[in-house]
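Comment thread on ticket #2218

A.B. wrote:
> Attaching the input chain for the structure job we discussed in standup.
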Amino acid sequence: MASQAEQFMEAAEKKVFDDEHRRKLKHNIGQYNKKVLEGKKQFSNYELARTRASALKTKVIENLDKYLIEFESNFIKRGGKVIWALDAEEAMREVIQIMKKSNSRVVVKSKSMVTEEVHFNKSLEKEGLVSLETDLGEVIQQMDDEPPYHIVTPAMHKSKEDVAKLFHEKLGTPIDWTPQQITAYVREDLREKYQTADVGVTGGNFLIADIGAVAVSENEGNALMSVSFPKIVISIVGIEKLIPSINDLDLYWPLLATNGTGQNMTVYNTILTGPKYPGEVDGPEEMYVILLDNGRTNILSKPEQRRALNCIRCGACLNGCPIYEGVGGHSYGTTYSGPIGSVLTPNMKNLQEFKHLSYASSLCGKCTEVCPVKIDLHKLLLTNRRDAVTEKSTKTENVIWFFWKGAMLKRSKMEKGGAKVKNFMLKQFFKKTWGDRRELPLVAPKSFNQIWKERRGVK
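C.D. wrote:
> Ran it. Output below, let me know if you need it in another format.
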């Protein structure tokens, strides 16, 4: 089986030379960029907001144990239940156990990247259970049996014609349907599913420690509907999503909306505090929050990389990245793509297996420039590269640089072999690294030192 790096290179090769794919992505990202510029106008001092958001998230990550306990205590006081999951398998075991215990079969699920991370839909399918996406973009992707293409916009790589064709092929709807007609069709179809589903599942944009609540932001109302009808609600949230207080939402909600979609605020912002109280009409009878680690403590243990846990999943770094715009989201082969995915994945999973992602960058710094919580993403990519070398996970590269260093430290060694030998060695060891579409540079027949000596008659 091909390695993750080989799969990435193969997928990237196809996408980067697919003109139609690049046209769609460039158009969609271009529309996003226009909106973001408009959204930033709501801030009287945008840089100050970024600095505050960064400092506050850093404070939380540095004291994560304290805030997690505070959140758990306050959520339990409101009647909720907290489950700690070490990895994706444990999280899904807990979900399936809850469903089987309550004889539940059907889930309505709002948009959530963390549920993609734990392979939620596939895990339920194996147990004969049904998970229905309710976000329009996710509905499209589930229908096409594809994972999300983008953190914020799951079907960013599809045009309206692509979507109409997909619905026509899968559901027999007219092939010339407009986005409005498709949206109306999905909305009507989902209404019944919301009312008959046994369980509602959400992710969480923020965990609020001081009141013990989950904050969910969206634009379609699907998350709100997913928690309003079912008797059981499950929120799966990464342990890094904490903020200290409900008062901090006035900082993070506008930053997330502006950088995610260019809005002042997303249309629906819901705070879930647990099951409904006696006398309340809406809300679940039971609510669970699954706090997911799944490699996050690996990052927390690294003083430099832990800054990446400040991420609020706005997707700004993806939209700013020239590599992402070329190769697209699916090429990465991971839940989180783009610069943030290239930083997180090797540390959450396996550095040896995913180190290639840290090299999928031009190091232009655009990702750092646009990050609303000031994560030094391009520097962290270099940090990952350094660790890959330090941990001896790049054996061939280490051997090559060992001999290069030996030659460079002594002039007589550097002059040995001549240009023919050096060009041969370059082709042998660097051809794959340099890529198929570039020619390796040729070593000159004589070095500068040799030419200098000849011109001055020095032997």
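A.B. wrote:
> Thanks. Noting for the ticket: The longest strand covers residues 232-238.
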